[in-house]
Design goal:
The protein has 176 residues and is an alpha+beta fold. Helices cover 26% and strands 26% of the residues.
Length: 176
């Protein structure tokens, strides 16, 4: 919710509460019914970055996503297309008190270029503030140029390696 309308009623941002936008896409918190679609999308994400699942290491959050993104210490967001199919994800989790991390931000290639990445990032920032994070971190690969530019456009700045992720070449942080 942002501000008030001319009538004095609270102004509601449809994407902030998971309602469909004018294009028919919705960004919302994951629900139990999404289990299979989330598994499919997280596998598609790994395939897109050309990596195998490292279930005991870097990707433990994928294997245990329901615990990692439980709605209390972290959340998993999904992007739903106009037909109800999940076509993207983004996870937020706690690293330290007041410090969160964005993980698994992904939009299917056929849905890229529609402004969904910006909407997903905006929702991530809203959720991060609601979880009490004062700083938000992420890592990325150099070859994911569109993602890097998106993060920079939101004010993320480069920082030293904070997590030892062997897949990443860029680490970033935003003060909320």
């Amino acid at each position: 919710m942002r501000g008030r309308s001319d009538s004095g009623a609270p102004r509601v941002d449809a994407t902030a509460i998971g309602m469909r936008g004018p294009d028919g896409y919705a960004i919302r918190r994951v629900e139990g019914r999404d289990r299979h679609a989330v598994a499919r999308e997280l596998a598609a994400y790994l395939a897109h970055i050309e990596e195998d699942l490292d279930d005991e290491g870097l990707d433990h959050d994928i294997v245990h996503w329901e615990r990692e993104y439980d709605g209390t210490s972290g959340v998993l967001l999904v992007v739903e297309d106009p037909t109800g199919e999940i076509v993207g994800t983004a996870g937020l989790r706690s690293l330290d008190p007041g410090v969160g991390e964005i993980k698994r931000m992904w939009i299917r290639p056929r849905c890229q270029g529609l402004g969904l990445g910006r909407r997903l990032m905006s929702r991530c920032l809203e959720e991060a503030r609601a979880l009490g994070f004062r700083r938000l971190r992420l890592d990325t690969e150099r070859r994911l140029e569109a993602a890097f530019h998106l993060y920079k456009s939101y004010g993320f700045t480069e920082i030293p390696d904070y997590n030892g992720n062997r897949r990443a070449q860029i680490w970033m942080e935003l003060k909320l």
